[in-house]
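ingest -> validate -> predict -> emit
validate: passed (alphabet ok, no gaps, 157 aa)
predict: started
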Amino acid sequence: MTPTSEQNDEPDTAGQDPFSLPDAQQARAQRVHAALFRIAERHAATEEQRARQAHPSVLGPHEAVRLVSFLMSGAAQVEAGEPEVDRADVTAALSLLPLVRGELDELEAGLLRMARGRGMTWPEVAFGLGLGTPQAARQRYERLVGRVRAAGEPEEE
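emit:
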């Protein structure tokens, strides 16, 4: 018995033609969602766990930039009695971006150092970062370390 043309054109059970390359962006988006869910479930399941990475009374630079952005876009609503975001708020948030970028560079470089210190290979790091090759991951790390060092971190030993 030969399959009908209808049967031949149907995708496999995963919804992907077995002879087509997977969509890298879609796979990355699925990993991002899974990563957020995994970390939230394992390390931020309670309010106390979520609060341990934030200062209880001082807004961090990344939080301030994010808050202004969310308020401006409508992703967060202004509460009763709270002033609307104005030009000075936007200027303040823009002024914090270089600091946020520097902190993120330090965070990424540190995470990559710890990952390598725990035995992760460059191919594993590249996969996690969504990069195509181990060489790209290593070059990214070297650029980050150079930027962080230029910003004032002491040299590695």
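The first helix runs from residue 5 to 9.
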